[in-house]
From TrEMBL, chain A:
It comes from Miscanthus lutarioriparius. It holds the Pfam family LRRNT_2. The keyword Glycosyltransferase does not apply. Keywords: Leucine-rich repeat, Repeat, Signal. Residues 24-64 form the Leucine-rich repeat-containing N-terminal plant-type domain. SUPFAM superfamilies: L domain-like (SSF52058). This is Leucine-rich repeat-containing N-terminal plant-type domain-containing protein.
From TrEMBL, chain B:
Keywords: Leucine-rich repeat, Membrane, Repeat, Signal, Transmembrane, Transmembrane helix. Pfam families: LRR_1, LRR_8, LRRNT_2. SMART domains: LRR_TYP. Residues 35-68 form the Leucine-rich repeat-containing N-terminal plant-type domain. This is Leucine-rich repeat-containing N-terminal plant-type domain-containing protein. It comes from the Eukaryota.
Amino acid sequence: MAARVLAALLALALAVSTAPARASNDEGDALYALRQRLSDPNGVLQSWDPTLVNPCTWFHVTCDQASRVVRLDLGNSNVSGSIGPELGRLVNLRYLELYRNNLDGEIPKELGNLKNLISLDLYANKLTGGIPKSLSKLDSLRFMRLNNNKLTGSIPREFAKLSNLKVIDLSNNDLCGTIPVDGPFSTFPLRSFENNSRLNGPELQGLVPYDFGC
Amino acid sequence: MGIKQSCSFTPCVLADLSLLFCILLAPVCLATSPAALLQVKSGLTDPEGVLSGWSLEADVCSWHGITCLPGEAGIVTGLNLSGYGLSGMIPPAISGLISIESIDLSSNSLTGPIPPELGVLENLRTLLLFSNSLTGTIPPELGLLKNLKVLRIGDNRLHGEIPPHLGNCSELETLGLAYCQLNGTIPAELGSLKQLQKLALDNNTLTGGIPEQLAGCVSLRFLSLADNMLQGNIPSFIGSFSDLQSLNLANNQFSGEIPAEIGSLSSLTYLNLLGNSLTGAIPAELNRLGQLQVLDLSMNNISGKVSISAAQLKNLKYLVLSGNLLDGAIPEDLCADDSSSLLENLFLAGNNLEGGIEALLSCGALQSIDVSNNSFTGVIPPGIDRLPGLVNLALHNNSFTGALQPQIGNLSNLEILSLFHNGLTGGIPQEIGRLQKLKLLFLYENQMSGTIPDELTNCTSLEEVDFFGNHFHGPIPERIGNLKNLAVLQLRQNDLSGPIPASLGECRSLQALALADNRLTGALPETFRQLAELSVVTLYNNSLEGPLPESLFQLKNLTVINFSHNRFAGSLVPLLGSTSLTVLALTDNSFSGVIPAVVARSRNMVRLQLGGNRLTGAIPAELGNLTRLSMLDLSLNNLSGDIPAELSNCVELTHLKLDGNNLTGTVPACLGSLRSLGELDLSWNALTGGIPPELGNCSGLLKLSLSDNHLTGSIPPEIGRLTSLNVLNLNKNSLTGAIPPALQQCNKLYELRLSENSLEGPIPPELGQLSELQVILDLSRNRLSGEIPASLGSLVKLERLNLSSNRLDGQIPSSLLQLTSLHGLNLSDNLLSGAVPAGLSSFPAAAFVGNELCGAPLLPCGPRSPARRLSGTEVVVIVAGIALVSAVVCVALLYTMLRVWSNWRAVSVSNSDGEESAHGGHGGGGGKWGDGKYWKVGSPVSWSAEQKHSSGSETASVLLHDKSTEAARAGKR
């Protein structure tokens, strides 16, 4: 019994003393959380060592001069799994390039926290669920390519606020409702929305609700 | 062998397998007891000489370890040689001790099997062979020992199954088979052992369930089946073992609920079910176990509330419920509020518990509290000093708030205080200095502030201090050196300022020092040389300065040094006394002098980062000895000389950054053997010669930058084999020849820069395959000729395209209009001609000047497009003219509109046809955006489509241009 008690005490001491002094870099932690989520048969995330001071020497991660993560390039990397909410903590991110993989699950609404994001490239994956309204908070966003996924639901009306949006591609999904016409949407070609069998064409304002038929 | 010899003069000679003869001839065998003992002796190695007195010259009953039957000389009943370091095998001759009742050979180093011949010793009551290194299986012959009461043969290397024959040892009271490698199931036959009181089968690899026949062991007091692979439910018949005092089923795979019947075990003092897969709630019946002292249900999947009342379990000292799915609050009545509680240790870590911990203050005997990794909230109660016996207090990974109260100083027995990762605010009370026994103080990842109190340096037992990630400001206490036992000091990421106190050198036990991410200033104190145990030291991101004390060279145990982003200067040598360095990171300081070759003595170096200093001299070839090196960053120094070919021996290199130096010579071809390389940056040097084709072998390369050198020759097509490449930058060299079409294979490129070289020939249309090009395609300032390939229109992600200052001719392909992501374009200073496609008119004129181009944003295309530049006056005249014409046109247009409106359909059709033929040379899509598009726009839908590609003022000028054209046509008409 004494041995058991001793073991319990030892376990406590061990638990306390081995608790890692977590790295200050929240960005590294967020990226490492992504690594934990993803299945990576090609080993493209092998260099992601969480014990380093920051993730700036990790492959496929680019930092600016102040060691803030500004690019994540995992396009065409044969990774699978879900994106997860942690990426929303990469508040300095400008380019999120996760295209042409086997990512599934939903687009996390937390990506709406990426205030500096210029490019959101999630095309050619297996993403499901709706397009989060929160992405309308991405004031800097110029390129949003979510095409060739399995996204459902309507195109959030709030996207009309994205005044910097230059390119949107939502084609080849399973979206429904109508296409907004306000703000940047007045300039987007129809091919950005094609092959969404339940999408009903440009919105007729005031006549039918935008998610008509959803 | 022994048996044969002892019986060689008896009729047993032919019966060496049948010991029964010897039993029949018992008197003879009894008489040979000394001889049997001597044979036992001869088989053993006896390092302590305890058997030296065993000789026929003395009475056998006087031999060490021998007990004889009182009164009757020569009848040996006991053999006790426990713990004498004996080795060798147990000789089968031991079976000659036919009168023996007790054998104890435990705690030696005996090897070999348990002799089956022991089965003949029918008088044997006690057989103790535990804690040896015996091998083989348990001989079934032991089942013949009808008088055996105690059999303890555990802690050996026995394997195989437990022989069911042991169920025949009907007198057995103690069966100890623990700590072996026994497998198979628990034999049901053990259920016949009605006298069995202690059954220890723990630490084997037994499988299957607990057989129901075991219910027959009605005398059990002690049952340990822990650390096996047993599964199934815990049988409820265990509740019928009315004498059971200790039940240990830990670390098996038992599932289902805890049977409520366990609550009937009124004698139970110890109950351990940890590490199974038990589910359901804690049965309330457990509260009936009035004798229980230890209750461990940790590491299961038990859910529901903490329904244990130490007020009822009056003898409970240890309550361990960690690692379950318990929720709710700690029950108010956990301990009766009458100071009668005996509860000393409470472990609730890793559940989903919430609320405050005030209820614990009633458990006055508590010594250890671990409620970490839950969702507890509220403050750490000031009344915590009602628990004066507290030694360990672990509240980390919860959501506690508020400040740490001065009463914490009353916990004079406290050794571990772990509060990290909560929401604590406020300062550290100075009363903390009264905790003379405190060894571990973990406050990291809270929101605490204020200064670190000087009184902390009175806690002279402190071994580990971690304040990482708070808001402490002010200086590090000057008397920190009082903490003579300090091994870990982690103050990273606070707002600490001032110098590193010289007294820190008195912390002679210090192994890890992390002061990074603060605002510390001043030099490193000379006293650091005394920190002989120091292994990890991280001071990055401070404002520390000056040369390092030379005496630091005495620190031989350093493994990790990170001084990056400070103002340290002078030589690196003081940091190179250790040959065990794995990380040396000194980026962005002002270190000067050469890179000493002794750095290569640390053969386990993984990261060597010396970038952004003032280092001079050559790169030492000895770096090639660092075969485990992964990161070599010597960028942004003043290094000169060649790139040593020896670097190709660093086969694990993933990053090689030598950019921003004065390196000369060629790019060593052998760098192509670095197969792990992901980043190779040799830019901003004075390298000459060609780009070695061997670089094409670095198949994992993601970034290749050779810009700003004097490289010559052509771009080797082997670069196309770098199919993982993201960034290729060969800017500012003297490269010649054509752009190799093989670059199309680098289809992950997002940045391609080849500008400021002397590249010639056409732009390979294959570049249009680089569909992920995004940041820039820069081919400017070369001698490229031919037309801009229409295929570049496929680069739909491209944001910047620079083809300026080449010799490109022909028209701008209308396919460039597909570059919807483009926001930077420069085609200036080429030989391009024709009209700027209208969709590109939103780019500034500077993007197109220096060509033969016309149309917005340049001047409109007239019948004879003016090749020469127009003077300001001319521009004014032209603009005024256009304005005048426009006004006329507007009027004419209104008139025309009225006319046209009536026969709209006919006009529209005829104009369409005309445009198609007139602009046929532009290709399919080109005509749409050509000069006459205003009239070609036949419906409101395509009108809005045009707007999509032009905006604001540009649209107006396009319109102006188009209307004037139409005016001319209208005039003709």
